[in-house]
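[Discussion] Sanity-checking designs against the backbone

I'm trying to build intuition for which residues belong where. Below is a structure token string of 388 positions. I'd appreciate it if someone posts a full sequence so I can compare it with mine line by line.
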């Protein structure tokens, strides 16, 4: 198949690379040759790592030869599928989608990798609303297996099915939402993790390092919550936080993240965020081996969010778990972990924090019901899952 990838930054260059690894022809479009050449260098470095490990068999130069770079949309005239990955600015998305709509063949699907702008708003920039869809990759897209597929109210079933098939053919795990919700699945849960992490620190319950040590050493996550926030980029975190809350999700007071962004401490990409990254390169953060933070408390708000998603039939428990396993490299699904920690423990923490005046922690009916019925997780034989 022939693809256009618009935007060659962190996500765009990675998506183009994945498509080329799987044998597709890719037109990589961006606004300047400086940016495109930097993308080429990043793809080369990444492909070299895969080649040396044997995870890709073809020589990197052969894979790269399938990627044509351009500063003009004209190269998109014969594509089958486009993926947009430009910054999250509505006017920019408008320009990209109007240009693609004008140049790409009528039957081409136009996907967006946006994490915060409603897909239906983007679809309205085009004359093919049924062929516009969300295809949300996770950072780094070369490694993370998750792709959230988000149909808007206009998207046809055929477009959704083709996008799911495409994700699968790229070795990814697609999770399709029944209906679009702000932040989709992954970022809604990631937001809840950041909010609780921030609340613990700002209320003096724990330090940043203690929160992250709990995440990594007790729960087994690949990164601490603040560490992951630095990795994603604190400007991106604040942006997705504000976008989700603006569209009706309850907020938790937190100054830490915005203060960092105001000081231009954006995480890995600026060399400093909650931690320091010499040379603006990610290096695993050093953390204390032990922590007083309770995993059930740190995950409580995230589990409450997952319960909301399940209650509202947006995804199933196993799909929430796929999102966290394949999008964030959780060692187990969030709800599997919740079952192990005990739904009663999760509920007790939510009630405790809610009673301190944090309205966002109001326990979801589903959790209250589960505890009332004695379905408190692994120890009772049933929680989100059944145990023999
Ligand atoms: N290309 C090729 N290989 C790469 C790579 C890339 N771009 N990035 C990392 N790697 C390789 C490394 O070379 C390394 O290989 P070896 O094990 O053979 O040495 C391997 O991946 C692991 O990398 P590191 O040793 O540098 O560090 P790590 O062990 O901590 O793993 C990580 C890095 C895979 C990113 C891991 O920390 C992780 O899974 N973190 C969680 C990431 C996550 O949650 N992402 C989602 C962010 S949210 C999002 O993206 C959505 C949004 O809209 C904001």
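Best answer:
Here's mine. Compare freely.
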């Amino acid at each position: 198949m022939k693809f256009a990838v618009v935007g060659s930054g962190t996500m765009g260059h990675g998506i183009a690379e994945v498509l080329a690894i799987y044998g597709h022809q890719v037109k990589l479009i961006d606004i300047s040759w400086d940016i495109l050449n930097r993308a080429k260098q990043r793809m080369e470095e990444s492909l070299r790592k895969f080649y040396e490990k044997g995870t890709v068999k073809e020589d990197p130069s052969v894979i790269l030869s399938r990627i044509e770079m351009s500063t003009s949309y004209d190269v998109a005239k014969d594509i089958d599928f486009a993926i947009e990955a430009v910054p999250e600015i509505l006017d920019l998305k408008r320009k990209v989608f109007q240009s693609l709509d004008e140049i790409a063949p009528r039957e081409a699907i136009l996907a967006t990798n946006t994490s915060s702008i409603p897909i239906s708003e983007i679809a309205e920039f085009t004359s093919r609303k049924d062929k516009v869809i969300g295809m949300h990759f996770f950072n780094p897209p070369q490694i993370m297996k998750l792709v959230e597929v988000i149909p808007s109210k206009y998207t046809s079933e055929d477009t959704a099915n083709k996008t799911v098939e495409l994700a699968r053919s790229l070795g990814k795990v697609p999770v399709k939402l029944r209906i679009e919700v702000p932040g989709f699945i992954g970022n809604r849960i990631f937001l809840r993790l950041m909010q609780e992490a921030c609340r613990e620190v700002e209320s003096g319950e724990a330090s940043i390092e203690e929160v992250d040590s709990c995440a990594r050493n007790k729960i087994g996550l690949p990164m601490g919550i603040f560490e992951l926030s630095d990795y994603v980029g604190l400007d991106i975190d604040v942006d997705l936080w504000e976008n989700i809350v603006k569209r009706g999700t309850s907020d938790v007071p937190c100054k830490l993240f915005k203060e960092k962004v105001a000081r231009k401490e954006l995480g890995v990409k600026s060399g400093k965020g909650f931690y320091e990254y010499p040379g603006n390169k990610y290096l695993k953060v050093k953390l204390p081996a032990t922590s007083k933070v309770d995993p059930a408390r740190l995950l409580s708000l995230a589990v409450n969010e997952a319960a909301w998603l399940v209650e509202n039939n947006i995804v199933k428990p196993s799909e929430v778990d796929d999102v966290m396993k394949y999008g964030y490299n959780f060692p187990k699904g969030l709800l599997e972990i919740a079952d192990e920690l005990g739904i009663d423990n999760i509920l007790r923490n939510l009630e405790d924090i809610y009673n301190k005046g944090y309205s966002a922690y109001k326990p979801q009916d589903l959790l209250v019901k589960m505890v009332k019925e004695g379905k408190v997780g692994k120890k009772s034989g049933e929680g989100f899952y059944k145990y023999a």
